[in-house]
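The instructor's notes for this session suggest beginning with a concrete chain rather than abstract definitions. Hand out the sequence below and ask the class to guess, before any prediction is shown, which regions might be ordered.
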Amino acid sequence: RYKQQYFSWTEKEDQFIRDNGHKMHTVELGEKLNRTRHAVQQRKYFLGVTLEERYRKLAGRRAHKHFVERR
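After discussion, reveal the predicted structure:
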């Protein structure tokens, strides 16, 4: 049976999210931090970081392109 592993977040990772989370999509952050999209999304919520409006449309397109390419 598969056992889930949980890895603690480091201060360095948190700072990276605080610095870049406003302008990078969760998929991109996850790739840089070697974390899943869902893990990054939860951490962004915990830290109170949201994507700025001007980046939302562009980031959505990037995420969609990334998702389609991986299939």
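Then share the key points. The longest helix spans residues 53-70. The chain has a mean pLDDT of 79.
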